[in-house]
Amino acid sequence: MYRVEDKYNCTEGQFVTLQARMEAVLKPDVNEGGPEGYRITSLYFDDLADSCLRDTVDGVNRRSKYRIRIYNDSLDLIKLEVKTKRDNRIMKTAKTITREQMESLVRGECIEDSASVADPATLFNLAIRTQGLRPKVIVAYERKAYVYEPGNVRITFDRNVRASGCVEDFGRKNRSYDFLREYDKVLEVKYDEFIPDFLLQLLETGSMRQSAYSKYQLCRECAGM
Question: Angle 118-123-127 (CA atoms, 0-180°, nearest 5)?
């Protein structure tokens, strides 16, 4: 099912204010490891023509992104994800993979799949075979997340967005990064069919504007790729 995904660039002051409001009324994400939230590191893939990047820059209404994601620099949980965007709605297919499967995909090799379009491995393998899908950039940031069960609302605060073009270092600790300077904080609001009015009121700052923010695009540009 497609979910609404709205993104907003924020100042530090807006971040502090809005996070305090969410903290007072919403539950923190169950996956959080502590009061500071958790670190997300993603390895994004693109094809030989950089179709994912070009579609993002051109604002194509229907586009996809391919990535492998880990948390807190640990390889204990490795997620393979394909995210499809249609206007401001997103749908994500994901599955857990092994370290060996991750290393195969990084080398441009296919892994076992179920031959179903609901399996992200199937979509990865198809793109590898037909489009030359390869890893392009590492994107990392810290996330604080809050949830509200009615409407399946999820509100996330991402800060310190940074990039690395050394894709072979994915999964290793102590990597060096280039930090985004102007767009290193983003608020994301995701929900199914509706979001309660009281949350919309809490999210109002008077100056925050919705943005077509793309961590992948900005980090590709930051890494000079």
Answer: 170
